[in-house]
């Protein structure tokens, strides 16, 4: 537990304790939690019209006829548009990551014109005076579809003679991406390594499709004013959205302002340029009126981009003593029907993380991006790295079984030792700092490892119906996205820098403008702590502004655990510039040489002359008045900075899960979960713990609960929260968390990033734990999520429980279900 | 999503309610706690012409002692049920099962009667009512009638309550002798509906099981009594072995559905395990 510091209330003459490291309660939470704030859907503008979208009920079809005349007649309806109406001006939604030069991108219209490629694609948009009127008119739209064969299963989609998702393309493969360490010069020849190995273990893992399921539904408001447009959107990426929306619609960038007001979660799901954002702009431009679109939860689950959905073929080679010799990964990655903002890049980002923390001499990665008639996949918390971490941490356990070794011993033998940092891996990444042994020792103690192992033994011996297992995940990830030059070398469409500005107000208060856009992470609190320490001003005197391109002109927004590492560093750099500028003014006013000035606790003082001095907040007023300042400088101490990291940062940690498996029912229950994460310098322990908890919830959810399931026709079966199981607090155990701290050398704060750690690390720990509980009963794999039925089938029928699937992601769903198709609880 | 337009009536007595239903047009829906009806309307799977809200019919809310039975008003909320002393004394099984229903918010609005009339096969209360041999008091234009639990649940989402009628109260007989009860619910997350659940009510006499009633949740379109288990238990010795042997028969004759959570054969397997556990606990073994 982290002790919470409330407002300190210290007498003002005592030197304030550093803000960095304080478990401050988040200053933004009261308004976020009570909802008394500007969520996009709370906005009401004069004359605002409401949109409802008519969506395709079929997964793959030609649109043969659209009749919207009845819609037009409906009460309250102002206008209705079909794909034909925007065919000329809508362009294509952007894909910013062509991972290979010959990647095939079919283009993605915001509204379907003559063909639909997944259920839920927009086919008409209704504009009405009220939301209810727009909604009522939806069922009056009459659209005829000529069905086309539905492609759902990736392995079938890439087979010879497969039906095509896009019939103007040659195949369902968008790209073939390869990273070969031998060819890149970062490792030796992989085929040779496998040929020479004593032991080779091969596995096929399924990364099921997940839904980001952010709490605040997506919402967009666009207001036209003359030829200017303001768009409010519940987005993670106002800056990127502005550039992209300008390019798609032809509205000049300087005529478009994008605002992300308070945003209620994203997890990558709002790292997107949405069709509805473009449609709102196009319609507001046509009508000259403000418009709003807010999705329903059903629309959100059905049409917002999904995550994961990969089939992983993983081979590991080792010698008999347990030294790893080579790693080979082949992926099929489901793109869905289209390439969205970074759809193709997600598996490619993961490519660099498969070697994990281990010293593999040889490594080869290949990935096929595959089209199917499903909603596109894209970033979801971890984006590529959870998949990679799962694969390596799962196969290390399989290798340990094959070698008859303790899984921890195998890891120890192969991981990078603390003395070896910085360490360049076989994937070419330079891991910055860390100590895997210490983190692991701490985690073992937190878990109470020895007692649990003893209990496991007892339960095995007594043939207890409830068996116990312990699972490891010793992981690292790449954060701090990203060095711009590296992104360039990976053909990404933008840089990875971040921008900040500090504005010193006349009363000494401070405005911090950040280009990194929060949607629940607590930037306002953490950035205030950074600035309070840098400038020596009270925490309460700092206001953080964000998310509005008119206020924060430059920025690359929030994803990939980049905010503190990159955005926070820009803030610190800007603060340094403020101090440098203020120093000149202070020297002038104190009639001293700049070199004789000390700056501490927000005050410049002349060395050796106690009692003298000038506070930076006083200087702010002095320079506002500008009555007395040195010649040759401008009367301002405001400053801006752009920080472009030179390397990624590499948080790491050891996650341990103890799992009970009821062998009679297949029910799994986490008995205990302990983790020790190294996220570098900790600015706010409470925020760090919160991020770890939330990440664990989502990572555990992938292991045990969540899966987006399509039926044979391409309908999303898990279309409500009754069927798409997001765990709540009551379903999760107490988390025992801890930290080691090895500062990141690559940024002035020393932070490594914590936003995704829990989500990346936990999934394999949980699955490994369940398998450890039942491996002696002959179970070698269980398909995620580990539903009770799958666990039970794996125990009783063998296999991974996925064949007679409880939740089937694809057309393999052979036997038709009987009886009413609703799951328990028709509501 | 926003429901389709509808007219709304808010009666304060049962008579007014019946009249509002009669005058409500083609498709009238009664609104109790709204926890099942409102979601279906918001998804536009139902679009009633008129909604008759029973929320102000105070006479339908509360639990009373009626000699050999307790009587639970249809509009008694789940959270009222959980804190009611009569239920705690005479039918703790109802409270135990109600405690597994959804979450606090849903239990605060959802009602005992609504859950029974809705008759979702995955709902927890129908099997409990069946195991307790409850009686359902229904009123309508034709007057008042009482239907035993065994005849109340007719089919998937269908009960003996006809169009134009209301369920007003449920009579639960007090049990005489030394009874034990248990509701064993199996689901994946705490707030979810039952994949399978078993309600067991057991009377012990002289080291034997004198009588057992076993209700099954979600083992078919309606709740079921596991008659073979009940017969095997009647007069059996109160031992773990006897209970286990009887429980093996829990799925006989059932035709459960297959869905995302469970295929039929897995449901049948669960029924046997959960029956063993429920009866074992109810028998105090
Ligand atoms: C998230 C969620 C989780 C849930 N989980 C569970 C669970 O785990 N277990 C469980 O058992 N239930 C669960 N429920 C359902 C809950 O118990 C509901 O309260 C119940 O199903 C319906 O009760 P209600 O009072 O809300 O009825 P309403 O939704 O108002 O009505 C339901 C139906 O019954 C009819 N009706 C209601 N009262 C009468 C009456 N007196 N006479 C005639 N007709 C009437 C209505 O017309 C309607 O058709 C869940 C609900 C939700 C929203």
From TrEMBL, chain A:
Keyword Plastid: no
Aldehyde oxidase/xanthine dehydrogenase a/b hammerhead domain span: 34-149
Taxonomy, superkingdom: Bacteria
Entry keyword set: Molybdenum, Oxidoreductase
Segments traversing the membrane: none
InterPro entries named among the record's database cross-references: Ald_Oxase/Xan_DH_a/b, Ald_Oxase/Xan_DH_a/b_sf, Ald_Oxase/xanthine_DH-like, AldOxase/xan_DH_MoCoBD1, AldOxase/xan_DH_MoCoBD2, AldOxase/xan_DH_Mopterin-bd_sf
Record carries keyword Manganese: no
Listed Pfam families: Ald_Xan_dh_C, MoCoBD_1, MoCoBD_2
Name listed for the protein in its UniProt record: Molybdopterin-dependent oxidoreductase
Organism: Blastococcus saxobsidens
UniProtKB/TrEMBL annotation, chain B:
Native organism: Blastococcus saxobsidens
UniProt keyword Ribonucleoprotein present: no
A Pfam family recorded for this sequence: FAD_binding_5
SUPFAM superfamilies from the UniProt entry: CO dehydrogenase flavoprotein C-terminal domain-like, FAD-binding/transporter-associated domain-like
Protein name per Swiss-Prot or TrEMBL: Xanthine dehydrogenase family protein subunit M
Signal peptide segment: none
Residues of the FAD-binding PCMH-type domain: 1-177
Gene Ontology MF annotations: FAD binding; oxidoreductase activity
Keywords: FAD, Flavoprotein, Oxidoreductase
